[in-house]
Amino acid sequence: MSEAMTNTFSQAPVTPISLRRRITDKVMTGAAVLTVLIVLAPLVAIFAYVVYRGIGAINWAFLTQTPKPVGEAGGGMANAIVGSALILGIASIVGVPFGIGAGIYLAEFGRNRFGSAIRFTADVLNGVPSIVIGIVAWSILVRERGFSALAGGLALAIMMVPTISRTTEEMLLLVPQALREAAYGLGVPRWRTTLSIVLRTATSGVITGIMLAFARIAGETAPLLFTALGNSFWNLHYNQPTAALPLQIYVYANSPYDDWHRQAWAGSLVLIVLIVSSVAAVRYVVRRGSFGTA
Amino acid sequence: MANPAFPRPDMPGPQPVAAAKVNADAVQSTPLLQSSGGEATDRIFRSAITACGLAVLGVLALIVYELVTSSRLSWHAFGLKFFVGSDWDPVSEQFGALPFVYGTLVSSLVALVIAVPLSIGVAVFTTEMCPKSLRGPLSFFVELLAAIPSVIYGLWAMFVLVPLLSGYVQPFLAKTLGWTGLFEGPPYGIGMLAAGIILSIMIIPIISSISREVLTVVPQHQREGVLALGATRWEMIRVGVLRNARAGIVGGIILGLGRALGETIAVTMVIGNRPEIAKSLFAPGYTMASVLANEFSEATGDVYLSALVEIGLALFLVTIIVNALAQLLVWTVTRGQPARANV
Description:
The complex is a heterodimer. Chain A is mainly α. Chain A contains 12 helices and no strands. In chain A, helix 4 runs parallel beside helix 7, helix 7 (about 150-175) runs antiparallel to helix 10 and helix 10 (about 205-220) packs antiparallel against helix 12. At the A-B interface, helix 1, helix 2, helix 4, helix 5 and helix 6 of A face helix 1, helix 2, helix 3, helix 4 and helix 5 of B.
């Protein structure tokens, strides 16, 4: 390679590029295009198949009824949809304030070694397998008090914090320093500046982070396996085992019944619509918001 | 966001109280110019915010503490033998985790072998080759792969990928590459190969988006310099771009590895869940995460539970080390920006 280059350089610059090099260039370009096609193929295949099987399987009963006993056809996942909402609600109530708080700390007070430690921990925490977080939630809450929506929500909250805090930090750092100085100049105390001016300005970016974290935890199954556990009946109490959509899909997919497979596809469609719409909402907010270059 | 009423008993330390205080203050309408009492509130605000930051460290400490204390029983009973023994017999309380460790490593390795070239190809295409107008949509679609829940990957793999493998791909591989010993035995579809393939699809968005980020920060003059020397586009990419971004790309690969090691549900659905060590990729296997998913909620007996938690602890330590390494590598290239799969 380097030899070829020096040659081109030392000779007249108009020397045509050798055939071998031109072919390599074309071949590698073709290879790159091919990788893109290969990577997009499963995406298209999965979406198309989920929509195809899901639309055929979804009906009013699916959205309004609870599961029928084993082997009996019919029934639905209404309790799992509501249960997911309950668990995700608990996770957001716990995870969002902490994530935003940690993000504010990193952006406004975290320009030091301690801040770097937190930043690094958050990034590392982001990579902890979700099933391990499930074990920890089990060990804290379930071992003594039994399976509950609260334990599932806590596990998911732990997973939300790193994403929210890091995006919040990034977004707050985009707010111009002059804005803070202007507020201080008017005699506004620091806390008020941070909350009503800096955070307020970065709202759309912070919401992006929250939605991303939400989209990530909404489809999680592993941390719920031994925290929320699942339930065939309605439950709205935070301290009881609760059904969740991903859990129900998992159980039904592994069952030998065709009708349950059908419902697993319907559940997948509901889940994917939920997640893709929150991701799309993020894109929309990002495009409209003032600080949109996430 | 302003939600002072959270369930208290489960949260560590005094943070919830402090956070609630801040939120209450934010709602109060004090005139902007009145700064009296600002200092005291500032101190409270600052400690509340610091507490939130500390909570991040606290969560990590909590994870370590819970895993270590809950796995102590198994550690005392088996020691290091736990990771070299291959007997997994809950009835006679003999626990050796080697088949799970093996399954985790091999399935992740298969995933990397497939995912790395594809991801780098996609990253190179999006940053260096494709028209600007295509760049945004393309990265959006690739990252949409990261938004699909693991359980849906598993479902799709069970009903589409596995029949495809057993019907077409595996017979073909057995005929052409069977002599290597990696592709032999009955083509069930379910097994290590299926797990590796589904994992590779799941980690491609991570590796490719980080590679893309890293490629974008390679300074433009590097490209121009190499082009000015008479290089073709591919030579420019190889010498001017890829070589400069090497550390960051390796970081992205390691981050993908971390995700593959810990991935649970999709793998559990297609790997076959049999604790055996086989050379052939067609054979069923078992991973550390899958055994947790399958056995944890039904485990009876303290030693059994403790052995499972020890697997969790091992998985945690491995992913922590792998991730820390990856973060450091990516940080050296992008200077402190987080390595994230989405956005």
